Structures are given as structure tokens and as C-alpha cells.
């Protein structure tokens, strides 16, 4: 019996180590940030120092005639002062996941690393010829795809939980618990969120790498997707809340807010869809297409539609003054024009044909 | 163990590279595959190992269709010398990867083959010269202990001694009847003595299969000189003209029977001389119309 | 094997002739063991089937004999049978006719014959 997972692991040994190092690096970054927070807390003013300076402050404000401000200043107790300055998390409104103050909610660095590694694995294997080696071994391609996933996903998922997990352990070992200000559900929300986003990022990156065969186009496209997706998501949540009132306010990747569950659902859909597409592509793409611009030609229109949607979301729908109807129309029309040009206009098809290095 | 290919068709880009390719090949045989540059030899090999999905047709090993039973493809190995993924890997890691991919891989044999040629396991494949790279590929193929081995231009760029060594290794493997080789090569002289059969790939299909010993028994290459400057009808009728220089005609007669000989002598040639018949002559006759004549 | 006189012949025929010559010249004597098919193939860089065919022909002509389990040996060269001689005659006569047509004289032919028979005597 051929152990496909072991082959993938042996081949991608260095990448797997790189992932562990990346996770370690992000842990170091957050650790150092925490160290600053901890140091700040450790050198906080004592109660008497605080009360002294508060009295000074109140006296000053009374002298200036601002009686309201003076009264407010006098109200804040030492305890609440400490909490508002040093707490690690705070809960805002109905957000399932607490917002980070000095703690860690979203390990954006590792999510991006997972995305990059996903793209890299697909590109290395497809363009570098490893997939050709695997193809000749007599293992069904579907099994090969899932062997790859089963090598990377557990490690990535595990690391995505390990970093926030270890940080949390560090907090509870060194910081006063009431200042950490975390509920059990809040903790769970953080871990689940990191896991979902990191795993989705890898699968999405990998499928992208399978879809686009030109290395330069892939690199540029994958990079541009990051701000487009982040900004697009923000606009999408604003639109969603405006149109459906199921959300009170928009969110983003870093601060999902009330859009938390929508984002998790989105991750499920995207990762499931990307994995399904990835398996399909791996099974059906014949290797001579592997270096072409788009490895699956019948996905041309879905790609154009997807990119148009993304650009419309970014530049069309929500602008500086809120929802804007006219740009929303312009972008889809542009997308349609590009798609038709790609399909029919000889000059464009000639260029894309030249980009199709079919071998 | 027998491999049969039927109706294999593959289009790449806009070109129909393979069109209804049919052939069979079994262990104990050395089969040569010849064709002009770009004829599709490499495409055929890549299609056999499922790097390329054929548009039509099937490949079967011992009657097991490889699309239905992928495991049967484990009896086949093809290392494409132009598409190696392991340029940056050390020879040691290469051996480990192939051992994982091919369960019958003989690690000891791989190492001794490398050691015999003063190759060090810590060297990276990409750092080696072309000849040594070909040796490594050969070592991988032989150590894999896979019954059916595809070789793509194995003699390309090799010095005489390494070439002889590889030929000896191939002969050794085949002599037991446990291994078969399908060798795509431009080196017609090498294939001449080595191959049992030669497949000619022309315009996407196997236009001719030649068993060399049989051909030499029945065919003849003759050098003829006739009194008149014209080429007699008998020559055109029974033979394939390979070369004409002044009055000297070189032609291939297949088959060369007594009747053909009689017909030729009837034309009263000034000279009939039998020349050595080689695979190059057969190649020249097969692809004659693709060449510009002066 | 690379003897230019044999260039028109098939590889297996060349091998047959080469071994026969070696016997005539005394390089191989009756009782000598011949290399196995595989080893001979490796030595002359030929397909083992080609070598096998050559061995078969040699065996049929009585030049070599296969002793099962022990190997292949040069056979005792008994006087050629009349049958064998008859088989070779047409080829000889054809060669003479061609030579005559090419203008070879009887003296030249005799010289050539002598050279052939002297070859192994050194």
C-alpha cells in the first residue's frame, strides 16, 4: 500500500516546518506585545497616587469653571480606572466574540501565512511537476488531493488553535483574572473564529493556486485579493445591515462584531466550496493545462462574475457618502464588457492565447 | 505483463498530437518508439502514465483498464527527464521519495548504482551534469523494480561508457523476461541492435511496426545504376527510393523476393549492390514525404 | 560483428558467422563454454532475443550444443555433411557469377579463396 500522506509530508517537509515557525513567530509577536501590556500594568500608579492626581485634576477643572467635567472626573474610582486602561478584552454590545483591547482575538499574521502556504503548495506541486509524479503512481487523483489536505489541514488547524490557546494560558498564569475579562463562550468564540478563518484561508489559497497557472498572475492576483476581500467584506456587511436590518452595524475580518455568525457561516461555505472545487480540479485538469492562465476554461465566466462582484462591492456599492446606486451599475457593466472581450474580441483572445503556455 | 493501448487520442492546444494510437508491449520486450521531433513521443508517454488525460481511448495492463483500476498503473513507470520536480533535492531524498511511491523500490540497488558511478547521495540532482542526471534517472527506473519501464531519450548526451553501461543494464533486466522497456529515441543506431520491435509515430498515429530482424530477412536496400537517366518502372513499383545522386539510385525493397530481383535484373542495371539495411533507412523511407527534396 | 563484409546481414546472422569464424580460426575449440545468452547480449550490446536466435541457428547447424543444466558448448566439429555442403553451394555460385560479371579473373578468385583459408592458420 502506498502511503500518499507520507509522500506529501516528505516532499513538503520544509513547508510544514515553515508553518510551525510562522506560528511560533506570531506567538512571539503577541508575546512581546503582551509583555508591554504586563509591564504597563505592573508599573501602574498605586491607589493613593491615583487619588492624589484625581484630586489635582478636579481642583484644576473647578478653577477653570467646568463643573460638569469636574464632577465626571471625581466619579471614576481607582478600580474602574485600572479596568478601563488595562483590561485585555471588553464586550461590546451583542458581539459574540469579545473585542481585543490588549489581548489577542484574531491572529491575522498566521491567517495570511496559511493563505500564502496554500497558494504556494498548489503552485509548487502543479507548476513544479510534483503532481506529475503523483499522477503516475497509480493512486486515484481524488485520494491524492485529500491526502494533501489531510497532511496540511490538521497542522494548520492545530496551530491556529495553539497560538491563541497558549496566549490565553499565559494571560491566566500572569494576569489578574478579572482584568482578563473573558467568559467561557468568549474564549470559545475566539478559538473557533481563528480556526475557521485560518483553515478557510489555506483551502481558498490552494484552490486559487490550482485555478491560475501563470505564476506572476497568481502572485499578483492572490496579493490583491487580500485588500479586496477585506474591504469588500466591510462593505458587504454595511449593505447587509442597511438592506436587511438583520445586522445593526457592519463588521470586518479583524472586528467581526455582530457579523460573527455570518462570517463563520461564510467560512463554512467558502472552505466547503473551495475544497469541493479543488478536488474537482485536481481530478479533471490534465497536466498540459497546468501552466495556462486559467486551468479550467469553462470557469471563465464564473471567474469574471466573481471578480466583478468583488470590484463592485469594493468600489461601487458603498462610498464616502453611503450607498451609491450609479457606480453600483457601472462596475457590473464593466465586468460584462471585460468578459465579452475575453470571449470574443480577437485582440484579447490572442493575448490570452499567448499567455496559455500549454505543455 | 502486457500493456495495450487502443484508440488513444490527445489534442494539445489546437494540435491533435495523438490520433487513434494503438499498440501493445509486454515484459521481456524492448520496443523502440521513433518519430520526428514534435511527433508526440513524449506526449504518448505522458498520456500512458495519466499526466495527460486522453481525449479518447484506453490503456490497459493485463486487461485492466487504467481509468477503472488506477492501481494497475503501479506496474508502469515514467520519469520525464524534462519535467523533474526534484532538481533541488538531494539524491538521498530522491531515493526516499521514490521508495515511498513505488513499494518494490530497492533502496540498496539504487545506492549501489549511484556508488558505482561515483555519485554521492548528498549531491543535488540539479547540480549534476546532463549525463549524470540521465544516470540517476536510469538508477531510479531500475531500482524501482517496476515491470514496465518507459524511457525517453535515455542515450541523449551520454558518453560512450555510460551509454554501454545503460544498454547492458537494459539487456540484463529484459533477459529474465520480468521487465519490458519502451524506449523513445532519436538514436536509431542504438535502437537498431537493441529493440525487438520499433514503432513509427507519424501524424499522430503508429504508422508502422517493424520487427528489425524480420525486415532484414525479407527486405533489401540496394544501390542501383541504370544505363538511362530515368528511374525504371520496376524500381518505383517495388521499392521506395531513399536517395538519388546522379545515376546512382538507393532504394529500399520490402519485401525483396525472387520476383522483385528478376524484375530489377530485367531492367538491365549496370550495377546492383546490396547495402546494409539499418533502422535509419527504414526511418528515411517512412518519413520521406515530410522532407524537402532538392 | 563490425566486419564490413557482413554489413548487409541481420545482426543474428552476423553473430552466427562470427562464432563460426572463431571456431574455424581455432579461437574457440570444441568443448569451450559459450557465454550465456544474457552475457553474450551484454558483450555485443544486442537484444537477448537476437542472441537467442543466433544460438538456435548454431545449434541447428551443429556448431554448438546445449547441455541442459551445464550450459552451451562448442560441439565437436564433425565433417560437414553433404547436405550442409549442398546448402552452401548456391550462395557460392551466385557470388562467383557476380564476381565474373564484375570482371574478376580466375586468378583473383583463387587468391581470394587462399586468403580465406589462410586466415586462421597464423
Automatic annotation (TrEMBL), chain A:
Keywords, sorted A to Z: Membrane, Transmembrane, Transmembrane helix
Transmembrane segments: 15-34, 108-130, 151-173, 179-204, 216-240, 260-282, 303-323, 329-351
The UniProt record lists the keyword S-adenosyl-L-methionine: no
Keyword Transport: no
Source organism, top-level taxon: Bacteria
Name of the featured protein: ABC transporter permease
Natural source organism: Lacticaseibacillus hegangensis
TrEMBL record, chain B:
GO-annotated molecular function: ATP binding
One Pfam assignment: ABC_tran
KW Nucleotide-binding (keyword) present: yes
Database matches in SUPFAM superfamilies: P-loop containing nucleoside triphosphate hydrolases (SSF52540)
Domain ABC transporter: 3-228
The keyword ATP-binding appears for this protein: yes
Alphabetized UniProt keyword annotations: ATP-binding, Nucleotide-binding
Protein name: ATP-binding cassette domain-containing protein
Species of provenance: Lacticaseibacillus hegangensis
Automatic annotation (TrEMBL), chain C:
Domain named HTH gntR-type: residues: 9-77
SUPFAM superfamilies: Winged helix' DNA-binding domain (SSF46785)
Any Pfam family matching the protein: GntR
Superkingdom: Bacteria
Alphabetically ordered keywords of this record: DNA-binding, Transcription, Transcription regulation
PANTHER family attached to this UniProt entry: HTH-TYPE TRANSCRIPTIONAL REPRESSOR YTRA
Designated name of the protein: GntR family transcriptional regulator
Natural source organism: Lacticaseibacillus hegangensis
Taxonomic lineage from the root: Bacteria, Bacillati, Bacillota, Bacilli, Lactobacillales
Amino acid at each position: 500500500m502506498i502511503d500518499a500522506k507520507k509522500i506529501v509530508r516528505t516532499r513538503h517537509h520544509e513547508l510544514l516546518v515553515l508553518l510551525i515557525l510562522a506560528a511560533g513567530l506570531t506567538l512571539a509577536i503577541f508575546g512581546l506585545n503582551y509583555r508591554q501590556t504586563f509591564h504597563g500594568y505592573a508599573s501602574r500608579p498605586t491607589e493613593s497616587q491615583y487619588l492624589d492626581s484625581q484630586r489635582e485634576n478636579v481642583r484644576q477643572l473647578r478653577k477653570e469653571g467646568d463643573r460638569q467635567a469636574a464632577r465626571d472626573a471625581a466619579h471614576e474610582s481607582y478600580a474602574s480606572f485600572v479596568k478601563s486602561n488595562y483590561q485585555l478584552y471588553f464586550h461590546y454590545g451583542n458581539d459574540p466574540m469579545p473585542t481585543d483591547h490588549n489581548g489577542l482575538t484574531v491572529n491575522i499574521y498566521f491567517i495570511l501565512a496559511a493563505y500564502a502556504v496554500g497558494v504556494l503548495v498548489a503552485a509548487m506541486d502543479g507548476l513544479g511537476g510534483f503532481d506529475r509524479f503523483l499522477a503516475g503512481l497509480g493512486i486515484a487523483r481524488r485520494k491524492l488531493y485529500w491526502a494533501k489536505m489531510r497532511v496540511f489541514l490538521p497542522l494548520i488547524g492545530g496551530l491556529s488553535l495553539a497560538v491563541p490557546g497558549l496566549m490565553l494560558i499565559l494571560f491566566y498564569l500572569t494576569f489578574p483574572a478579572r482584568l482578563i475579562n473573558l467568559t467561557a463562550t468568549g474564549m470559545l468564540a475566539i478559538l473557533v473564529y481563528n480556526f475557521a478563518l485560518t483553515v478557510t484561508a489555506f483551502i481558498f489559497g490552494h484552490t486559487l493556486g490550482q485555478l491560475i497557472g501563470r505564476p506572476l498572475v497568481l502572485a499578483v492576483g492572490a496579493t490583491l485579493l487580500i485588500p479586496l476581500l477585506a474591504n469588500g467584506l466591510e462593505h458587504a456587511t454595511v449593505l447587509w445591515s442597511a438592506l436587511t436590518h438583520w445586522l445593526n452595524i457592519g463588521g470586518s475580518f479583524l472586528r467581526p462584531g455582530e457579523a460573527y455568525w455570518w462570517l463563520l457561516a461564510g467560512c463554512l461555505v467558502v472552505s466547503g466550496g473551495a475544497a469541493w472545487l479543488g478536488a474537482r480540479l485536481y481530478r479533471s485538469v490534465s497536466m498540459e493545462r497546468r501552466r495556462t492562465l486559467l486551468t479550467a476554461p469553462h470557469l471563465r465566466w464564473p471567474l469574471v462574475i466573481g471578480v466583478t462582484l468583488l470590484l463592485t462591492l469594493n468600489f461601487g456599492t458603498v462610498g464616502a457618502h453611503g450607498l451609491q446606486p450609479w457606480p453600483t451599475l457601472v462596475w457590473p457593466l464593466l465586468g460584462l464588457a471585460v468578459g465579452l472581450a475575453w470571449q470574443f474580441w480577437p485582440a484579447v483572445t490572442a493575448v490570452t492565447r499567448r499567455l496559455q503556455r500549454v505543455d | 505483463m502486457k500493456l495495450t493501448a487502443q484508440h488513444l487520442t490527445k489534442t494539445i492546444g489546437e494540435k491533435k498530437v495523438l490520433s487513434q494510437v494503438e499498440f501493445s508491449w509486454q515484459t521481456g520486450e524492448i520496443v523502440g518508439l521513433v518519430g520526428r521531433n514534435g511527433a508526440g513521443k513524449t506526449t504518448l508517454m505522458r498520456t500512458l502514465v495519466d499526466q495527460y488525460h486522453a481525449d479518447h481511448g484506453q490503456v490497459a495492463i493485463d486487461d485492466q483498464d487504467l481509468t477503472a483500476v488506477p492501481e494497475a498503473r503501479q506496474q508502469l513507470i515514467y520519469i520525464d527527464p524534462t519535467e523533474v520536480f526534484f532538481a533541488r533535492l538531494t539524491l538521498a531524498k530522491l531515493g526516499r521519495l521514490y521508495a515511498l511511491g513505488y513499494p518494490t523500490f530497492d533502496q540498496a540497488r539504487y545506492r549501489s548504482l549511484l556508488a558505482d558511478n561515483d555519485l554521492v547521495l548528498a549531491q543535488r540532482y540539479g547540480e549534476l551534469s546532463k549525463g549524470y542526471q540521465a544516470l540517476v534517472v536510469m538508477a531510479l527506473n531500475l531500482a524501482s523494480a517496476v515491470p514496465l519501464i518507459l524511457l525517453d531519450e535515455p542515450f541523449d548526451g551520454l558518453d560512450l561508457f555510460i551509454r554501454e553501461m545503460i544498454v547492458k543494464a537494459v539487456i540484463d533486466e529484459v533477459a529474465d523476461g520480468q521487465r519490458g522497456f519502451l524506449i523513445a529515441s532519436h538514436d536509431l543506431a542504438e535502437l537498431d541492435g537493441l529493440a525487438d520491435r520499433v514503432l513509427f509515430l507519424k501524424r499522430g498515429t503508429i504508422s508502422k511496426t517493424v520487427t528489425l530482424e524480420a525486415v532484414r530477412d525479407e527486405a533489401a536496400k540496394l544501390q542501383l545504376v541504370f544505363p538511362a537517366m530515368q528511374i525504371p518502372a520496376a524500381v518505383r513499383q517495388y521499392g521506395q527510393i531513399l536517395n538519388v545522386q546522379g545515376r546512382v539510385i538507393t532504394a529500399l525493397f520490402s519485401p525483396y523476393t525472387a520476383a522483385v530481383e528478376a524484375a530489377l535484373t530485367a531492367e538491365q542495371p549496370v550495377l546492383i549492390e546490396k547495402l546494409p539495411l539499418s533502422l535509419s533507412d527504414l526511418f528515411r523511407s517512412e518519413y520521406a514525404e515530410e522532407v524537402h527534396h532538392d | 560483428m563490425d566486419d564490413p563484409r557482413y554489413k548487409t546481414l541481420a545482426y543474428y546472422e552476423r553473430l552466427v558467422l562470427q562464432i563460426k569464424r572463431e571456431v574455424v580460426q581455432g579461437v574457440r575449440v570444441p568443448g569451450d563454454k559459450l557465454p550465456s545468452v544474457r552475457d553474450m547480449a551484454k558483450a555485443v550490446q544486442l537484444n537477448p532475443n537476437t542472441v537467442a536466435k543466433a544460438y538456435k541457428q548454431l545449434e541447428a547447424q551443429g556448431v554448438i550444443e546445449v547441455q541442459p543444466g551445464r550450459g552451451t558448448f562448442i560441439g565437436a566439429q564433425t565433417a560437414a555433411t553433404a547436405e550442409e555442403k549442398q546448402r552452401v553451394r548456391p550462395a557460392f555460385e551466385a557470388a562467383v557469377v557476380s564476381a565474373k560479371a564484375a570482371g574478376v579473373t580466375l586468378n583473383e578468385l583463387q587468391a581470394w579463396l587462399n586468403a580465406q583459408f589462410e586466415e586462421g592458420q597464423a
